[in-house]
Amino acid sequence: MAGGEGAARAMPATSDAGRAVEILRSIYGYAEFRGLQQPIIEHVVAGGDALVLMPTGGGKSLCYQIPALVRPGLGVVVSPLIALMKDQVDALRQAGVRAAHLNSTLSAAAAADVEQAMRQGALDLVYVAPERLVTPRCLDLLGRCRIALFAIDEAHCVSQWGHDFRPEYLQLSVLHERFPAVPRLALTATADGPTRGDILARLKLDEARVFAAGFDRPNIRYRVVAKADAKAQLLRFLAEEHPGDAGIVYCLSRRRVEEVAAWLCERGRVALPYHAGLDAGTRERNQERFLREEGVIIVATVAFGMGIDKPNVRFVAHLDAPKSLEAYYQETGRAGRDGLPADAWMTYGMPDVTALMALLDAAQLDERQRRIERHKLNALLGFCETATCRRQVLLGYFGERDHPPCGNCDNCLRPARVWDGLVAAQKALSAVFRTGQRFGVGHLVDVLRGEVTERVQRFGHDKLKTFGVGTELDKREWQSVFRQLVAQGHLEVDVEGHGGLHLSETAPSVLRGEVPVAFRGDALEPKAGRRRGARGLAPSVLDGAAKPGDEALFAALRARRLELAREQGVPPYVIFHDATLLDMVRRRPRDLAAMSVIPGVGRSKLERYGETFLAIIGGAEG
Ligand code: ADP
Ligand code: ZN
Hints:
CATH architecture of the largest domain: 3-Layer(aba) Sandwich
Structural class: alpha/beta
Strand content: 5-15%
Number of helices: 27
Bound molecules: adenosine-5'-diphosphate, zinc ion
Helix content: 40-55%
Strand order of the largest sheet: 3-4-2-5-6-1-7
Radius of gyration: 27 Å
Number of domains: 4
Number of strands: 17
């Protein structure tokens, strides 16, 4: 760690803006600000309040860390995620910033040391849990420190709208009352209108400037595949595209989480379960291993993920469809924070539609809420079934309607066939009607295809007019037709029975041929258009211009990084990000000067690790 003077303070002090850039380069090792970082930093350095809405991976941390270093005094960061604070502090210390955290995991003695350092002005940044911050004792302590700014991370926790509401956050308005002259920034990746309004009102950020970045995550490739044998499909996806990568697999239920994790382990992957039914110790251990080891897969329910800032999550797979597009965006957003290519991959089929409708049906909601939730579910189903660019649908849902087709989703890469489905729809609907509006898809498909099953005979359905009228489509195609009829609202699922289908209000107009119906053909064998390097480690990031030996060098650099991380008890990515190691592979620096221009190699890391990594690169050159 830097000595008496913080590393930042040692910079030649020109303008504040100049110092911000200087810190970006010397401490973080980055050449330029990204997106809205610069205007945000300038605004806060000048003493303004701000609400920062930026997607995950957008670079929010620098927006408060750099102003905290430029402004005199201590930056106080409020974060709800005690378990992850230490990693954030470790990452800052690696870069030579004087940082500490203050929460219930510290012993009394350790906490007293931090408090003393705060009072003495020996810290640049301190991370504090919200419940601790609002205690009279802590507010008193802060009253005796010089404070550069307050940063309120995960600020959506103040809103009752979202699912992450934390009552402690409501009390943070006290900061405005106690420290009216100290600038405050609230930061979040959740930015729907009501949440945004709540943050501004409840934190009393009346004067704050709102900085909203676009929500696109261009490095994430969205794909939805028709669910056949979901586990086998997942295994193939992992084997072909992510043989050694870390990632998250989301499932709907705890039981399924356990089952899938065990199943992946039997097949040679390191896969750990995470759900609210596990005891806290197990959850913490599994999360730790995910953060600290390479190539670990977490199989989880939605309970997993907030604040996970592991940058090299290379895929997020949904084995079951998520509840809404908000949830989908948030969950998939955990992939590719480092900006390198990452996959959002989902299997989706009729069981998902039924399960989600059953959930909605079982929820205790008033009429208005139920309408909202139904609207959200329809938006999700629309996304899953769309034949157009998935990114356009996703961003459109969040209000960004002018996005061009992205070229990085399944529909852009391999346009889906769209066909006129009126006749098929009429056959399907009439099969539903003539069998009495109580059977599920399996049986209805048998009727349409003229299969003489035991059930068909028992109910006399081989005598119906619709029996055998649908031989032009195979079983899978009919399943897709039924799913899309549900998604388009022409059929409804009877969730209390066993997934039986009945006609909706709009079905008669389809039967009369008054409305057009189009279906997308399922892409059963989605071949990714991405070019891959040789098989092995991380093919998804080392593709394109990979040269012979690159993969081995990347592996050697990663191995050394892991050793260094283990020695110090920190996650590997706080030493160097994958993106930084990849750049070393590409540029093969030969000396410290060349090493210092690699993005992510700041002054402190150059000193600590420059020689070690140069030696490995030199060795690889032979
Ligand atoms: P967020 O908190 O918004 O999810 P982070 O602050 O964790 O995002 O930043 C995401 C990633 O982008 C990190 O790996 C970070 O080091 C990197 N990053 C941030 N700003 C820059 C920049 N100006 N240039 C290069 N990389 C950056
Ligand atoms: Zn697209």
